[in-house]
Amino acid sequence: MSDAFSISTQQNEPLELTADVLVIGGGPAGTWAAWSAASKGARVVLADKGYCGASGATAPSGVGVWYVQPDPEERAKAKASREALGGFLADHSWMDRVLDQTYENVAHLAQWGYPFPTNERGEQVRRGMQGPEYMKIMRKVVKQAGVKILDHSPALELLLDFDGVVAGAAGVQRQENRPWSVKAGAVVIATGGCAFLSKALGTNVLTGDGGLMAAEAGGEMSGMEFSNAYSLAPAFSSVTKSAYYSWASFTYEDGRVIEGAGSQRGRSIIAKTLLTQPVFCQLDKADDETQVWMRKGQPNFFLPFDRAGINPFTDRFPVTMRLEGTVRGTGGIRIADTTCATTAPGLYAAGDAATRELICGGFTGGGSHNAAWAISSGYWAGGGAAAYALSLGEKAHNRRLRGAGRAALRPAGAGFDTAEIVRGVQSEVTPYDKNLFRTEAGLRSSLVELNGLWRAVQGRPESASTTEGVIQARQAAAMVATARWMYASAHVRTETRGMHKRVDHPAQSPEQQYRLLSGGLDTVWVKPDPTSVAAPAPKETVSR
Amino acid sequence: MIELVSQSRCIECNLCVKVCPTNVFDEVDGGAPVIARQSACQTCFMCEVYCPADALYVAPEAEASVAVDEDRLIDLGLLGSYREAVGWGPGRTPGAAKVDATDYMQEKIRKVLH
Ligand SMILES: Cc1cc2nc3c(=O)[nH]c(=O)nc-3n(C[C@H](O)[C@H](O)[C@H](O)COP(=O)(O)OP(=O)(O)OC[C@H]3O[C@@H](n4cnc5c(N)ncnc54)[C@H](O)[C@@H]3O)c2cc1C
Ligand code: SF4
Ligand code: SF4
């Protein structure tokens, strides 16, 4: 390509492929999308930043899944359970679709050999999947469907035809040290959420790349104020598995109990305490029998303890709350129709990269909705992309393409230091007193900082001479973009709803029961989604 | 963070190089892979789960590199312990198939919270 971004070191000859559908990201959403597209007769390439099967948030952890028997009463109960928590922003027809599709697809997973455990009646219990096993099977299934997988191949930008329609993507193969590009009839973004390199379990590959790529091609975001998920973990550790902290007591250093602290409703109190002093924890409410079950249920929960020589039931250990951003938040790329098309023609989105407000509003809490959404939205996005691509016929591969990427790829300013940009973003999004407890003044001051960082990443990364350097610089730019949409949306939502907490507006305001769209690169905008519940006449708010 | 590639155990299959999501290892001609970018390690333990020779050790400390001693890890039964818990390896049953704790746990959580 004539306008390819440049990396100054010697790289090997580029890999150039064509496909009907290109899937970017190989977690649950990406693999379901690839399988679905291939099943509809499309030729599919899947590119993952890491290794499809081991990369992303699900692979090292495991997920409870929103799997509910097709019994009207149970379904109604399942839908009602999160409505209030999510601030009444979910949509019943989407909840119904996701419950149906998840139920059907999990049955496929059982057929493919996922070893679901059985209950005393000998029936399979299909409410959760352990990560390594689930993703190993998904990789196998995708390969058997004829999908070509490119591992260690982060996408850096989308490719557009001269009408601005998405027609492929380009990136680098980090282990082969060569550029890749795929010309495709349609592209699915399934790059996961953004946890800002916090080291929460499995999330350091999730830097918001898909959102930036989509925005450069005309995509919009939704629900970006619901982006402040934090999870409990031993202070030294990456293992953000929060469920078992239901059995915990939380104490100050001197052993006094912290009143009101708890893993579900009392997390704010833990965060507030952590702002000034360490918080200690002990799982002293678990009886002997429970302890045995806990070990069997989530072996990775005990890894850090066993290795650090801590008995979490009898010893006190320091805890922290690690940022999971939009991974266990609900904001992401706006979904425009039931095929999971975005507002950018030729582009589809699925999983954590897309908004999950449609099924859980502004809150996901103890998971399961995310896993169900990844399965269903992946399935629909893959199918939608295949139908669109196949309808283009030969035209799909005769288009002249150009790269859509700008920030950190095609320098328009002075040099910048990637590590400094990353530190800059993290110091705005990580602290509890900025992101969890939000205020007008705090958000405004963060936006000023973030706008400055955005101007900086228009330049040339000092690390641009190496393949790794380019990947990291582009990730930094994506984190800055994500943080700006987050805080611009949080600034406009002058109330507390879902996981979004405004200290200066602690109540839920009935007039704001609508979803917020956002987008823009140099100029960020936010406006109510006219298709969401009780939306007033759209009023656009612009922040420069 | 990843702290150990056991020279005596490694069979040089390079699976860890392949599966590590953040590209921490480099292949070495005729030898065990090296930890080339330790600071990129996200402490996800996936390399350990895949290593067929129980040759890798990921320390639980996510932020800091710590010293480890291979003999001591073997004595404590920690080399390969997570692969065993996940139930991968010849003759093992996948941990996923063993139990379903959901009902039991949900009931217990309800009791603890109320
Ligand atoms: C500790 C933890 C526990 C969780 N537990 C639950 C639970 O119990 N229930 C539940 O419903 N949800 C849970 N979640 C959330 C759940 O894991 C995610 O919703 C799910 O993984 C989303 O799937 P995904 O495919 O969209 O993204 P991911 O699984 O994160 O996969 C994204 C993939 O995209 C790749 N990628 C990223 N950028 C690029 C790029 N530029 N180019 C190419 N590839 C790229 C990554 O390498 C990765 O493989 C949990 C999350 C965490 C962190
Ligand atoms: S996976 Fe294990 S045996 Fe294979 S190369 Fe890596 S350390 Fe050696
Ligand atoms: S723990 Fe995860 S990130 Fe670290 S080396 Fe192993 S696979 Fe790579």
From TrEMBL, chain A:
Family matches, as Gene3D superfamilies: FAD/NAD(P)-binding domain (3.50.50.60), Fumarate reductase/succinate dehydrogenase flavoprotein-like, C-terminal domain (1.20.58.100)
InterPro entries: FAD-dep_OxRdtase_2_FAD-bd, FAD/NAD-bd_sf, Fum_R/Succ_DH_flav-like_C_sf, Fum_Rdtase/Succ_DH_flav-like_C, NadB
Protein name: L-aspartate oxidase
Cofactor(s), by name: FAD
Keyword flag Oxidoreductase: yes
Transmembrane segments: none
Molecular function terms, GO-annotated: L-aspartate oxidase activity
Reaction equations catalysed: L-aspartate + O2 = iminosuccinate + H2O2
Database matches in Pfam families: FAD_binding_2, Succ_DH_flav_C
Limits of the Fumarate reductase/succinate dehydrogenase flavoprotein-like C-terminal domain: 436-509
Biological classification of the source: Bacteria, Bacillati, Armatimonadota, Armatimonadia, Capsulimonadales
Occurrences of domain FAD-dependent oxidoreductase 2 FAD-binding (ranges): 20-226
A GO biological-process term: NAD+ biosynthetic process
Organism this protein belongs to: Capsulimonas corticalis
Alphabetically ordered keywords of this record: FAD, Flavoprotein, Oxidoreductase
UniProtKB/TrEMBL annotation, chain B:
Domain of life: Bacteria
Keyword Mitochondrion listed: no
Pfam families given in the database record: Fer4_9
Record keyword Methyltransferase present: no
Any GO MF annotation of the entry: 4 iron, 4 sulfur cluster binding
Keywords of this entry: 4Fe-4S, Iron, Iron-sulfur, Metal-binding
Endpoints of the signal sequence: none
PANTHER family noted in UniProt: ADENYLYLSULFATE REDUCTASE, BETA SUBUNIT, FERREDOXIN III
Protein name: Ferredoxin
